[in-house]
Amino acid sequence: MTLFKIPHAFGEAKACIVSAFRTALACTMVGSLTLFGPPSIQNLIAFPAFSYVTVILIINDATLGDTFRACWLALYATIQSIGPAIFTLWLIGPGRFSLGTTTLVVALATLVVALPSESTHLVAKRIALGQIVIVYFVTYINGVHVEPIMHPLRVAASTAVGVFACVIALLLPFPRLACHEVKRSCKLLTENTLKRLKLLMKAICEEDKNLALTYISHAQSLTTTRTKLLQIITRYQDGMRWENPLIKVFRSYCLCPKERLEEVDTYLRGMELALRKINSFPVSILDEDIKHALNSLEQHVSLTIKQTKHNLHGCSITVPEPSTKTVSNILQSLNTFPTTHQCLPVYFYLFCSKLLYKTSWAQAPTSIQYQPTQKKESSRQGKEKLANWVKTLISPKLMPAIKCSLSLGLALFLGSLYSRNNGFWSALPVAISFASGREATFRVANVKAQGTVLGTVYGVLGCFVFERFLPIRFMSLLPWFIFTSFLQRSKLYGPAGGISAVIGAILILGRKNFGQPSEFAIVRIIETFIGLTCSIVVDLLFMPKRASSCAKVELCESLVTLDESIRSFSLLHVGAKTNLEENQKKLKMQVREIRKFVLEAEAEPNFWLTSFHTVCYNKLLRSLSTMVDILHLGSHALEFLQQEFQISEASSGEYEIMLESDFQRLNDHICSSIKSYGEICRMKSLKFLEKELEKKNITYDIEMGGTPKSSICMVSSLGEDEIAKHTSSYLQHSKNVVDNLYGVDGKKELRSQVVLSLSALGFCLSAFMQQTLEIEEAIKELIQWENPSREINLYDISCKLATLYK
Known about the structure:
Layout: H1 2-36, H2 39-44, H3 48-59, H4 64-92, H5 99-114, H6 122-142, H7 150-171, H8 178-205, H9 209-243, H10 246-249, H11 252-277, H12 288-312, H13 324-332, H14 344-361, H15 375-393, H16 398-418, H17 424-432, H18 441-465, H19 470-475, H20 477-488, H21 494-509, H22 517-542, H23 547-567, H24 576-602, H25 614-647, H26 654-682, H27 686-695, H28 715-742, H29 748-786, H30 794-805
Keywords: Cell membrane, Membrane, Transmembrane, Transmembrane helix
Transmembrane segments: 41-59, 71-91, 97-115, 127-143, 155-174, 453-472, 492-509, 521-543
Main location: membrane
């Protein structure tokens, strides 16, 4: 396993060093103009500090396409901030800007810039907010000596220098293209997929159990790399569009391979899940014909995936026509219905293999045709945008803008009280770190503070060592750029800490005539702490809900969605497929939100509150993610069976209704449990529940049966024997349905497809129950963590809740 990590680590180191050299090149160009340029240029670029800040905001892990986009974002930010600033200075007059007036104007301008939380890119907002701080604070300091037009234009010129330096740095010595990054990542993602497929096929055919488990473990380890590669592809797709406008027309060039490989990845995860449930190797159901067919299937899928990879490079390879025998040989061997639930994982593996075969052969569209936009359509879209903007004004999304406005105004006011001439150093860090969503407030503030101190100390040391040699002093930034590039990719500091560190050093080593470096360093550190403190205080006042609380609320919502999804998992309901797809997508988004809150809660200080149970939430995330995959894969089986039953006109038949009753009986047990878990998670505490029962004079005794127990069912209360009995009943009824529709010898291939789909549904139901049991254990562990002195019985708690709210 170590050998597989070495190339990845080398690639990370190379990327860090290349990024550092490009950052150094851009900063060198800014420094050359501001330190050694003609006086006229130095006079125009009056704020070199913001030029450096602009470079750091844009060039961090950027491509050429990103810098092209940054040019537009900087122009948009300048129009958004400098235009109103010129009008405001002309209207009020530079001499009338007191500290109170400046704070008020900055707060209002910040609110306007930060308000459109979704339509404007974060880089544009951060640049605009930084410009606002500099324009109005310098006006407050210099008063009547400020030129209402030229002063804002000098701020704009300083911004433009930083932007164009980034563009040139990304062109030299050779351009770093987003297209290249996406192609390279797609190639690695394809190779990763092929390796996983090969390992999973080896595992199912392996006779030695230990060796099969080794293959499965190796395939699982490749999943982490796949996740990172998908993130890289998503990260650089916007940059591709800016590099080549044609990609906007031929959008499949950058989107389709990723979408296809994501679909393939879902089927591979299903195959992994099935393999983990197989207890004995070799698998007795698989004869030599099926193994040979699986090998042929693997070869064909591999060739088709390789075709996708070669298409990215403008060349092609010949893929043979799909052999109908490949799937037919598998299907014809599956006429016998599985008699026990131990056989279901193998059938589910073969079902996922069939889906994988069909998906890999399906041709992706080569282009997307865009129809000319009609005037009516433009008018309708304009009205929708206006309605969305009005909706934004009255929605909770207004809160980030209000928070930023108050934080920036308060930081500028308190920073100016501490040091009149350096007050904007408290507001600038707040401006350039604006975030439109939640973030780990204390962790981010901590790494920013540490990064600022590290960078500032390095800058002071650099000035001390190279006091008389300004060019050499500036070149001492190169090793610091390399160090901070690694720092930005570390879990300890991340982008926030790394950017703070590089800005802290460059503001000292890249400037001149700012006084004694040690004095400036101390003042700036204090001002930075003032700004970060203001951000924390405002964040706590306006968003006091902890990330751990948000994670629990989102967990409750996801359990409700999971309940609705499983209830939609039906053979007979006409609208079940649409509801299932919508609920599955919703559940997938909620799981993603829980994961985000868990990461934030891990870095959140506990103070006097209960610590966050990370291990328990990670267990819940694994179970919920597995549920999402099962719902997605099972929906394919449902769709096929619904179509086949409609064609056979058997939807009202006695056997199918019997099958649906078994199906729904298992679902009801699962949904009843999940609903109970959601209600238990919502309660404030056991102590609060007991107080409510006492307040309403409700006497509850589980032995006396004072609650409608029939409406409450935990999957764990069924017992393994009863679960096996339900599963066997479903399998027997499924066999009766198949025999009734196709007979024993008729329509062998079609019969085999129905057998495979019904067996896959049986596995899904079994997996639902297994994952529900794991969710129950995790919920119990979570409630026990929150109530350490109590003995936890989820059934007892659920009955109490039912008694209280019946």
